[in-house]
Amino acid sequence: MAGIVLIFAVNILVFSIVSVQLVPLGDEDSFLRAAAGLLDNWVMEPYPYSDVRPYGYPLFLVLPVWIGRVFQIDPRIPATVVQSAIYVGAAAALSWEISRVNRTFGIAALFGFSANFFAAAYLTHAMSDGLTIGLALWLAVVAVRVLRAPTFSLVLIGALLLGYSVMVRPANLFLIPLWGAALAVSYRKNFGRLVAAGALSAVVFAGILAPQAYHNRYYYGSTNLLTVVDLGTTQQGLGVLALKYYTLLTPPGFPAVTYNPELQVFAQPANVFYQNPLQVGRPLTWPRIDWYFMHPLQGLATVTLHLFGALDQDFIIPYTSDLTPPLRWPISIINHAVLLLSVIGAVKIMQALSVRKRWEVGIVGVAFLLGFCGVYGTAAVESRFGLPVLAFLFPLAFVGAVCVARMTMSGRVAVAISLSLYVVLALCLSEWLQRQAPPIVAQKQMDDAERRRQAD
C-alpha cells in the first residue's frame, strides 16, 4: 500500500511543479475567471468563452479560488488536491470492486490507477478534463453497484453524477450509454422499475441542465440546452478537416499575442492542426457530418484515426511551446503497451466472473466504448479527450501484466512478440499523424538541421 501511495504522490508532485510554472491560459484562464466571477457576484455572468463552457467546472473551482485568495496561493494547488481526492476515492472504490473478483487483480488495479501519469498531468491543472476523469470513474463505481444490487438511492446518485459530468464538459454525453445500459441490465426483469429508474434519471438530468439553459437564454437569447455555440456541429466539421489538434504556446512576437498584466508575461495559445489527407476536395462551406456518408471509405478511415489520435498521447501536458518533447517516444511506448495489456487484463477479469455477470459487465463496458466512439469518432480530437478511457485502461493493463507474469515462458514470449509488433506499428501511425501537422514537421526539420550543424 505504501508503494501505491508513493507512486501517486510522485506523479502528482512532478506534474504540480510543471503546472504552477505555466501561466493560466486558454481553458484554465477562462475557467478561473468564471469561478472568480461566481465567487464575487454569486451569478455566472458572461466571461471569455462562456458561450462554449457550461457552469459545472467554474462552480467546482469556486472553492479552490476562495482558498487561493485566503492563503495567497495559486488556486490550481487546492484544485489539484480536490481533483486528486476525487480520483483516489474512485480508484480505491473500483479497485475494491475488482478485488471482490480476485484480490490480486484488485491490488494490481490500484497500482495501475496510481501509476497513470496521463491522469496526473491533468489532475494538476484547472481544466475540466481532470475532474471528468474522477466523475467518470465514480459513475462506473455506481454502475457496478447498481448491477450488483439496484436501489433508487444509487439511481439518484448516478443520475446526479451523469448530469453534473455533462455540465463539467458537454462531450461527457458519451457517458449516457454507460448509465443507460447499467439501468437496463439491472432492471431488465422488472419493466415498471426500469421505467421509474429511467424517469428519475431523466428528471435529475434535466434539473441539472436547467440553470445552463436559463443562462443561455438570459444572456445570449439562445435556446440551446448545453452551450450557446453548437459544439457538436463545429467539432464534426473540424473533424473532416483535421484528424487531431493540439494547443501550442507561441512565444512573444507572434500576432495577436495576449498580455497578462497580473503575471506580466506574454503568451498566446494557438492550435496546431493535424490535417486530414483523406478529405475529398475542398469544401466551400463548413463540412457537415453527412461527409462521412458521402465518402464512406474515407469517412471510416477518418473515424478510426480520430479514435486512435484520442488515445495516442503524443503530448503529455495541456499546453507546451515544445513541439518535439524529449520524452515523446518513451511515453508513447508506455502509452501503447498499456493499450494492449489492458485487453489482456479485461479478458482475464471477465473470465473470473460468473457467466451472468460476464454478460452484464460486458454490455455496460461495450456501451461505454460505443458512447465514446459515437461522440469522438467524427470530431477533431485532442489527446486529452481519450483520458477517461485511459483511466480505465491503466488498471486493466496492470492486471494484464500480472497475468502475463504468471504465464508459461512460451506464453510470455508470445505476448512480448505481439506487444512489440503492436507498439512498433502504433508508433509508426503516431508519427504519421504528426507528419500531417505542418508546424510539427517544420520544428522537426529545424531540429534535424541544428543537429547536423553541431555535428559538423
UniProtKB/TrEMBL annotation:
Domain of life: Bacteria
Residue ranges crossing the lipid bilayer per the database entry: 6-25, 105-124, 130-147, 154-179, 191-210, 291-309, 329-347, 359-379, 385-406, 413-433
Presence of the UniProt keyword Transmembrane in the record: yes
UniProt keyword ATP-binding, yes or no: no
The entry's keywords: Membrane, Transmembrane, Transmembrane helix
Name of the protein this chain belongs to: Uncharacterized protein
Species per Swiss-Prot/TrEMBL record: Aureimonas glaciei
Phylogenetic classification of the source organism: Bacteria, Pseudomonadati, Pseudomonadota, Alphaproteobacteria, Hyphomicrobiales
